Amino acid sequence: MRALILVSTILISAHAMSQTPRKFLALGDSYSIGESVAENERWPNQLADKLTKAGTAVERPRIIATTGWRTDDLKNAIIKASIKPEYELVSLLIGVNNQYQGKPIEQYETEFKQLLTMAVQLAKGKKENVFVVSIPDYGFTPFGKPKQHQITEAIDGFNAVNKRIAAASGIRYFNITDISRQGLEQPYLVASDGLHPSGKQYSQWVERIAKEFFK
Fold first, then answer.
1. Which domain, by its residues, includes 171?
2. Contact 29, 65 (CB under 8 A)
C-alpha cells in the first residue's frame, strides 16, 4: 500500500511539474497591445488562454507594445526594460508604422533582424521558442479603404521582408494577413475605431496560430 501511495505521489508531482506555466512575451505595436479592444480580447491573451485550455499552461503574457511604435521604438523599449531572458514563448509582430510613416524598407529589414535576434535571446536563446506574426493589412478597413491598393502593395513588401528573415533564421512564421483582408466584407472583424482588428478577428488569428503551434 505504501509503495502504491509513493508511486501515486511521484506521478502527481511529475504532472504538476509538466504543467508549470510557460512564460510568454509579446513584442510589437498596436496589434499586440490590442488598440480599441478589451484586454481579454488582445490576441496574445487569447492565445495564452487557448493553449492553457488545450493542456499547455501559459501565463498571462507580458506585452511590450505601444500604438504607433516602429521597429526602432520597440528596440529601444526592449533595451530600456532590461527584460530577463526567461521566456518559453516570444512573439514578434512589428512594421505597420514603419510603412505608415514612410520609413525605408531597408531600415525595417536591418532593425527587424536585430529585433529577431533580441527575441531569441529573451527566449532563453532558443529559436524554437520564438514566432513571427505577419503584418495585417489596414487597407481593408474603413480608414484605409481610400488608399487600399497602395497600402496593400506596401504591406506585401514589408511582409516579404519579415517572412524571408524569419525563414533564414529558422523561426516559425504565421501569416494572418489574409484574415485581415476580409475586413471590408465582414465589418465585425474591424474594431469600433474603423482601423484596428476587433476581438473577433484576433480570435481567428489565434485559431490559426494554435492549430499549427505544436506540430
1. 21-212
2. yes
The count of other CB atoms within 10 Å of the CB of residue 100 is: 15
In order of 151, 154, 180, the CA distances from 102 in angstroms are 11, 10, 21
Give the count of alpha carbons within 13 A of 161, CB side only: 23
Counting as low any pLDDT under 70, the low residues of the chain are 1-18, 214-215
Cα→Cα distances 204→78, 100, 125, 176, 178, Å: 28, 24, 29, 9, 11
Give the Cα separation of 87 and 62 in Å (integer): 10
CA atoms within 13 A on the CB side of 92: 32
Which pLDDT score, from 0 to 100, does residue 213 have?
76
Query: Which amino acid is located at 188 in the chain?
Result: Y
Sheet containing 24-28, strands listed edge to edge, beginning at the edge strand earlier in sequence: 62-65, 24-28, 89-92, 130-133, 172-174
Give buried/exposed letters for 124-144 (b at 16+ CB in 10 A, else e).
Answer: eeebebbbbbbbbbbbbbeeb
70: CATH:
3.40.50.1110
- Looking at the structure of the chain, the number of domains it has is 1
pTM of the model: 0.91
State residue 30's pLDDT score.
Answer: 98
Residues, the chain:
215
Residue 191, classed as helix, strand or coil, is coil
pLDDT for 15 equals: 41
What is the predicted pLDDT for the residue at 214?
Answer: 62
Question: Buried b / exposed e across 61-86, counting CB within 10 Å, b at 16+?
Answer: bebbbbeebbbbbbbeebeeeebeee
